[in-house]
Specification:
With 335 residues, the chain is mainly α. The protein has 16 helices and 2 strands. The longest helix is centred in the middle third of the chain and has 25 residues.
Length: 335
Protein backbone atom coordinates (compact mmCIF):
# COMPACT_ATOMS: atom_id res chain seq x y z
CA UNK A 1 0.00 0.00 0.00
CA UNK A 2 1.43 3.40 -0.95
CA UNK A 3 1.76 6.33 1.43
CA UNK A 4 -1.20 8.30 0.11
CA UNK A 5 -3.56 5.34 0.42
CA UNK A 6 -2.36 4.66 3.96
CA UNK A 7 -2.86 8.31 4.87
CA UNK A 8 -6.38 8.19 3.47
CA UNK A 9 -7.21 5.16 5.58
CA UNK A 10 -5.78 6.86 8.66
CA UNK A 11 -7.98 9.91 8.03
CA UNK A 12 -11.02 7.66 7.62
CA UNK A 13 -10.23 5.92 10.91
CA UNK A 14 -9.86 9.25 12.66
CA UNK A 15 -13.22 10.37 11.25
CA UNK A 16 -14.79 7.10 12.34
CA UNK A 17 -13.55 7.48 15.90
CA UNK A 18 -14.75 11.04 16.15
CA UNK A 19 -18.19 10.55 14.66
CA UNK A 20 -18.95 7.32 16.48
CA UNK A 21 -18.35 8.96 19.85
CA UNK A 22 -21.57 9.32 21.81
CA UNK A 23 -21.92 12.70 23.47
CA UNK A 24 -24.58 12.40 26.14
CA UNK A 25 -24.42 16.05 27.18
CA UNK A 26 -25.53 18.75 24.72
CA UNK A 27 -22.87 20.99 23.21
CA UNK A 28 -22.03 24.31 24.77
CA UNK A 29 -24.29 27.17 23.74
CA UNK A 30 -22.92 29.15 20.77
CA UNK A 31 -24.03 32.38 22.43
CA UNK A 32 -21.87 34.35 24.87
CA UNK A 33 -22.68 33.82 28.52
CA UNK A 34 -25.19 36.38 29.73
CA UNK A 35 -27.40 36.78 32.74
CA UNK A 36 -31.11 37.23 33.18
CA UNK A 37 -34.10 36.24 31.11
CA UNK A 38 -32.62 37.42 27.80
CA UNK A 39 -29.59 35.19 28.26
CA UNK A 40 -31.78 32.18 29.05
CA UNK A 41 -34.07 32.75 26.06
CA UNK A 42 -31.12 33.11 23.69
CA UNK A 43 -29.94 29.65 24.66
CA UNK A 44 -33.27 28.02 23.91
CA UNK A 45 -33.70 25.88 20.82
CA UNK A 46 -36.61 27.78 19.29
CA UNK A 47 -37.53 25.43 16.42
CA UNK A 48 -38.04 22.68 19.00
CA UNK A 49 -40.01 25.04 21.24
CA UNK A 50 -42.27 25.77 18.25
CA UNK A 51 -42.89 22.05 17.74
CA UNK A 52 -43.68 21.68 21.44
CA UNK A 53 -46.31 24.43 21.13
CA UNK A 54 -47.75 22.73 18.03
CA UNK A 55 -47.88 19.39 19.83
CA UNK A 56 -49.53 20.88 22.92
CA UNK A 57 -52.05 22.67 20.72
CA UNK A 58 -52.94 19.48 18.88
CA UNK A 59 -53.31 17.58 22.15
CA UNK A 60 -55.50 20.30 23.66
CA UNK A 61 -57.67 20.59 20.56
CA UNK A 62 -58.21 16.82 20.41
CA UNK A 63 -59.49 16.82 24.00
CA UNK A 64 -61.62 19.97 23.77
CA UNK A 65 -63.57 19.16 20.62
CA UNK A 66 -67.17 18.21 21.37
CA UNK A 67 -68.69 14.78 21.00
CA UNK A 68 -69.35 13.92 17.39
CA UNK A 69 -65.93 15.12 16.22
CA UNK A 70 -64.25 11.80 16.90
CA UNK A 71 -63.28 11.20 13.27
CA UNK A 72 -61.11 14.31 13.51
CA UNK A 73 -60.11 14.44 17.18
CA UNK A 74 -58.95 10.82 17.49
CA UNK A 75 -56.45 10.87 14.56
CA UNK A 76 -55.28 14.30 15.73
CA UNK A 77 -54.63 12.83 19.17
CA UNK A 78 -52.63 9.95 17.68
CA UNK A 79 -50.46 12.42 15.77
CA UNK A 80 -49.95 14.59 18.87
CA UNK A 81 -48.98 11.61 21.04
CA UNK A 82 -46.56 10.34 18.41
CA UNK A 83 -44.96 13.76 18.10
CA UNK A 84 -44.76 14.08 21.89
CA UNK A 85 -42.77 10.86 22.09
CA UNK A 86 -40.29 12.24 19.55
CA UNK A 87 -40.06 15.48 21.56
CA UNK A 88 -39.28 13.43 24.67
CA UNK A 89 -36.39 11.93 22.74
CA UNK A 90 -35.15 15.43 21.91
CA UNK A 91 -35.45 16.50 25.54
CA UNK A 92 -33.28 13.70 26.88
CA UNK A 93 -30.61 14.75 24.37
CA UNK A 94 -30.66 18.32 25.71
CA UNK A 95 -33.22 20.16 23.59
CA UNK A 96 -34.76 22.68 23.61
CA UNK A 97 -33.66 24.25 26.91
CA UNK A 98 -30.10 22.95 27.27
CA UNK A 99 -31.11 22.17 30.86
CA UNK A 100 -31.27 18.70 32.37
CA UNK A 101 -33.59 19.94 35.13
CA UNK A 102 -36.03 21.68 32.78
CA UNK A 103 -36.16 18.67 30.46
CA UNK A 104 -36.89 16.37 33.40
CA UNK A 105 -39.66 18.54 34.83
CA UNK A 106 -41.41 18.82 31.46
CA UNK A 107 -40.66 15.24 30.46
CA UNK A 108 -42.33 13.77 33.54
CA UNK A 109 -45.69 14.56 31.93
CA UNK A 110 -46.15 11.74 29.45
CA UNK A 111 -49.65 11.78 27.95
CA UNK A 112 -48.83 8.54 26.14
CA UNK A 113 -49.12 6.95 29.62
CA UNK A 114 -47.19 3.74 29.06
CA UNK A 115 -43.50 4.77 29.28
CA UNK A 116 -42.07 6.85 32.16
CA UNK A 117 -39.74 9.57 30.93
CA UNK A 118 -37.01 8.71 33.43
CA UNK A 119 -37.04 5.05 32.36
CA UNK A 120 -36.95 6.08 28.70
CA UNK A 121 -34.02 8.40 29.37
CA UNK A 122 -32.00 5.82 31.28
CA UNK A 123 -32.57 3.04 28.75
CA UNK A 124 -32.12 5.22 25.69
CA UNK A 125 -28.82 6.68 26.84
CA UNK A 126 -27.63 3.12 27.48
CA UNK A 127 -28.73 2.31 23.93
CA UNK A 128 -26.33 5.00 22.70
CA UNK A 129 -23.34 2.87 23.64
CA UNK A 130 -22.82 2.11 19.98
CA UNK A 131 -20.50 -0.84 20.54
CA UNK A 132 -23.47 -2.70 22.10
CA UNK A 133 -26.06 -1.89 19.41
CA UNK A 134 -28.36 -4.87 18.71
CA UNK A 135 -26.84 -6.87 21.61
CA UNK A 136 -29.73 -9.00 22.98
CA UNK A 137 -28.73 -8.18 26.56
CA UNK A 138 -26.75 -4.93 26.66
CA UNK A 139 -28.79 -2.91 24.16
CA UNK A 140 -32.11 -2.08 25.88
CA UNK A 141 -33.74 -1.33 22.50
CA UNK A 142 -32.57 -4.44 20.65
CA UNK A 143 -35.23 -6.44 18.79
CA UNK A 144 -33.01 -9.52 18.59
CA UNK A 145 -33.01 -12.51 20.91
CA UNK A 146 -30.14 -14.66 22.07
CA UNK A 147 -30.24 -17.74 19.77
CA UNK A 148 -30.28 -19.96 22.86
CA UNK A 149 -33.45 -18.24 24.09
CA UNK A 150 -35.01 -18.63 20.65
CA UNK A 151 -34.14 -22.34 20.61
CA UNK A 152 -36.02 -22.89 23.88
CA UNK A 153 -39.21 -21.23 22.66
CA UNK A 154 -42.29 -23.16 21.68
CA UNK A 155 -43.91 -23.05 18.23
CA UNK A 156 -46.64 -20.55 19.21
CA UNK A 157 -44.17 -18.02 20.64
CA UNK A 158 -41.95 -18.43 17.59
CA UNK A 159 -44.90 -17.87 15.25
CA UNK A 160 -45.99 -14.71 17.09
CA UNK A 161 -42.47 -13.26 17.10
CA UNK A 162 -42.08 -14.17 13.44
CA UNK A 163 -45.21 -12.16 12.58
CA UNK A 164 -43.86 -9.36 14.77
CA UNK A 165 -40.84 -9.16 12.48
CA UNK A 166 -43.00 -8.02 9.57
CA UNK A 167 -43.87 -4.32 9.48
CA UNK A 168 -47.60 -4.96 9.73
CA UNK A 169 -47.04 -7.35 12.63
CA UNK A 170 -44.75 -4.87 14.36
CA UNK A 171 -47.42 -2.18 14.14
CA UNK A 172 -50.23 -4.48 15.29
CA UNK A 173 -48.47 -6.64 17.89
CA UNK A 174 -45.28 -4.71 18.58
CA UNK A 175 -46.66 -2.30 21.20
CA UNK A 176 -48.21 -5.19 23.16
CA UNK A 177 -45.09 -7.38 22.95
CA UNK A 178 -42.72 -4.49 23.62
CA UNK A 179 -44.66 -3.09 26.57
CA UNK A 180 -45.16 -6.53 28.06
CA UNK A 181 -41.43 -7.24 27.88
CA UNK A 182 -40.61 -3.79 29.23
CA UNK A 183 -43.00 -4.02 32.18
CA UNK A 184 -41.94 -7.57 33.06
CA UNK A 185 -38.29 -6.55 32.99
CA UNK A 186 -38.91 -3.57 35.27
CA UNK A 187 -40.96 -5.65 37.71
CA UNK A 188 -38.05 -8.09 37.96
CA UNK A 189 -35.62 -5.24 38.55
CA UNK A 190 -37.79 -3.83 41.32
CA UNK A 191 -38.12 -7.29 42.87
CA UNK A 192 -34.31 -7.46 42.93
CA UNK A 193 -34.26 -4.23 44.89
CA UNK A 194 -33.35 -1.73 42.15
CA UNK A 195 -34.83 1.33 43.86
CA UNK A 196 -34.04 3.68 40.99
CA UNK A 197 -36.43 1.82 38.70
CA UNK A 198 -39.20 2.04 41.30
CA UNK A 199 -38.55 5.76 41.77
CA UNK A 200 -38.82 6.30 38.01
CA UNK A 201 -42.26 4.72 38.03
CA UNK A 202 -43.38 6.65 41.11
CA UNK A 203 -42.32 9.91 39.46
CA UNK A 204 -44.40 8.92 36.42
CA UNK A 205 -47.66 8.49 38.34
CA UNK A 206 -48.62 12.17 38.89
CA UNK A 207 -48.49 12.76 35.13
CA UNK A 208 -50.74 9.73 34.60
CA UNK A 209 -53.24 11.10 37.12
CA UNK A 210 -53.26 14.54 35.45
CA UNK A 211 -53.69 12.98 32.00
CA UNK A 212 -56.62 10.81 33.09
CA UNK A 213 -58.19 13.84 34.80
CA UNK A 214 -57.95 15.81 31.55
CA UNK A 215 -59.46 12.92 29.61
CA UNK A 216 -62.28 12.76 32.17
CA UNK A 217 -63.06 16.41 31.47
CA UNK A 218 -63.19 15.83 27.72
CA UNK A 219 -65.83 14.33 25.47
CA UNK A 220 -63.45 11.52 24.49
CA UNK A 221 -64.16 8.15 26.14
CA UNK A 222 -61.30 6.65 28.13
CA UNK A 223 -61.21 3.58 25.88
CA UNK A 224 -60.73 5.83 22.84
CA UNK A 225 -57.89 7.67 24.55
CA UNK A 226 -56.14 4.41 25.47
CA UNK A 227 -56.62 3.20 21.89
CA UNK A 228 -54.96 6.40 20.68
CA UNK A 229 -52.02 5.74 23.01
CA UNK A 230 -51.67 2.27 21.51
CA UNK A 231 -52.00 3.62 17.98
CA UNK A 232 -49.23 6.17 18.64
CA UNK A 233 -46.96 3.35 19.75
CA UNK A 234 -47.87 1.54 16.54
CA UNK A 235 -46.82 4.55 14.45
CA UNK A 236 -43.55 4.76 16.37
CA UNK A 237 -42.91 1.10 15.55
CA UNK A 238 -42.59 2.14 11.89
CA UNK A 239 -39.47 4.09 12.86
CA UNK A 240 -37.95 1.47 15.14
CA UNK A 241 -38.75 -1.45 12.82
CA UNK A 242 -35.46 -1.31 10.94
CA UNK A 243 -33.46 1.52 12.49
CA UNK A 244 -30.80 -1.04 13.49
CA UNK A 245 -29.54 -4.21 11.87
CA UNK A 246 -27.10 -6.93 12.90
CA UNK A 247 -23.67 -6.10 11.50
CA UNK A 248 -20.12 -6.98 12.46
CA UNK A 249 -19.17 -3.30 12.62
CA UNK A 250 -20.98 -0.92 14.97
CA UNK A 251 -21.01 1.80 12.32
CA UNK A 252 -22.95 -0.50 9.96
CA UNK A 253 -25.85 -1.07 12.35
CA UNK A 254 -27.86 2.18 12.02
CA UNK A 255 -30.13 3.04 9.13
CA UNK A 256 -30.71 6.14 7.04
CA UNK A 257 -34.17 6.63 5.54
CA UNK A 258 -34.12 9.61 3.17
CA UNK A 259 -37.71 10.59 3.89
CA UNK A 260 -38.89 14.21 4.34
CA UNK A 261 -42.63 13.60 4.61
CA UNK A 262 -45.15 13.44 7.47
CA UNK A 263 -43.55 10.44 9.16
CA UNK A 264 -40.13 12.08 9.11
CA UNK A 265 -41.65 15.12 10.83
CA UNK A 266 -43.50 13.02 13.41
CA UNK A 267 -40.21 11.24 14.14
CA UNK A 268 -38.31 14.56 14.14
CA UNK A 269 -35.88 13.30 11.49
CA UNK A 270 -34.81 10.33 13.57
CA UNK A 271 -35.05 8.43 10.30
CA UNK A 272 -31.54 9.82 9.71
CA UNK A 273 -30.64 7.42 12.45
CA UNK A 274 -27.01 6.80 11.58
CA UNK A 275 -26.45 10.57 11.59
CA UNK A 276 -28.17 10.84 14.97
CA UNK A 277 -26.01 8.10 16.48
CA UNK A 278 -22.86 9.77 15.20
CA UNK A 279 -24.03 13.21 16.40
CA UNK A 280 -26.55 12.57 19.20
CA UNK A 281 -26.34 16.11 20.59
CA UNK A 282 -27.35 17.74 17.28
CA UNK A 283 -30.92 19.03 17.11
CA UNK A 284 -33.41 17.21 14.90
CA UNK A 285 -33.80 19.97 12.30
CA UNK A 286 -30.05 19.99 11.52
CA UNK A 287 -29.76 16.28 10.73
CA UNK A 288 -30.91 16.39 7.06
CA UNK A 289 -28.43 19.15 6.16
CA UNK A 290 -25.57 17.34 7.89
CA UNK A 291 -26.47 14.20 5.96
CA UNK A 292 -26.66 15.99 2.61
CA UNK A 293 -23.31 17.72 3.18
CA UNK A 294 -21.53 14.40 3.78
CA UNK A 295 -23.86 11.85 2.22
CA UNK A 296 -21.16 9.71 0.62
CA UNK A 297 -19.25 9.57 3.88
CA UNK A 298 -22.28 8.57 5.94
CA UNK A 299 -23.26 5.86 3.46
CA UNK A 300 -19.72 4.52 3.52
CA UNK A 301 -19.76 4.58 7.31
CA UNK A 302 -23.06 2.70 7.66
CA UNK A 303 -22.23 0.29 4.84
CA UNK A 304 -25.02 1.50 2.58
CA UNK A 305 -27.85 0.68 4.98
CA UNK A 306 -30.24 3.17 3.38
CA UNK A 307 -33.82 3.45 2.08
CA UNK A 308 -35.22 6.20 -0.13
CA UNK A 309 -38.44 6.65 1.85
CA UNK A 310 -40.87 5.02 4.23
CA UNK A 311 -42.87 4.10 1.13
CA UNK A 312 -40.01 1.84 0.13
CA UNK A 313 -39.95 0.32 3.62
CA UNK A 314 -43.69 -0.44 3.45
CA UNK A 315 -43.33 -1.88 -0.04
CA UNK A 316 -40.58 -4.26 1.00
CA UNK A 317 -41.55 -5.34 4.48
CA UNK A 318 -45.26 -4.82 5.16
CA UNK A 319 -45.88 -8.57 5.00
CA UNK A 320 -42.30 -9.79 4.83
CA UNK A 321 -39.82 -10.39 7.63
CA UNK A 322 -36.74 -8.22 7.46
CA UNK A 323 -34.62 -10.03 10.07
CA UNK A 324 -34.54 -13.31 11.93
CA UNK A 325 -35.68 -13.08 15.54
CA UNK A 326 -32.49 -14.72 16.80
CA UNK A 327 -29.43 -12.52 16.45
CA UNK A 328 -27.63 -13.93 13.38
CA UNK A 329 -24.16 -12.80 14.50
CA UNK A 330 -24.43 -13.36 18.24
CA UNK A 331 -21.14 -14.51 19.74
CA UNK A 332 -21.75 -13.67 23.39
CA UNK A 333 -22.32 -16.05 26.29
CA UNK A 334 -25.53 -18.00 26.13
CA UNK A 335 -27.92 -17.29 29.01
Amino acid sequence: MDGSARAGQDRAKDFDKKTMTTHILPPASPFPTSFGLIGILRRWDWPTVAVMVLCAGGFALALTLPAGWGLFSWPLLVLALTLHSSLSHEMLHGHPFNSHRASTVIGLFQPGLFVPYLRFRALHLAHHRDADLTDPYDDPESNYLDPAVWDRMGPVARAVLGVNNTLLGRMALGPLIGMGTFLWGDLRRMARGEREVALHWVAHLPGVVVTLWLVGLSAMPLWAYLAACYAALSVLRIRTFLEHQAHEKARGRSVIIEDRGLLAFLFLNNNYHAVHHMHPSVAWYRLPAIYRARKARFLWMNRGYVFRSYGEVFGRYLLRRKDPVAHPLWQGPRK
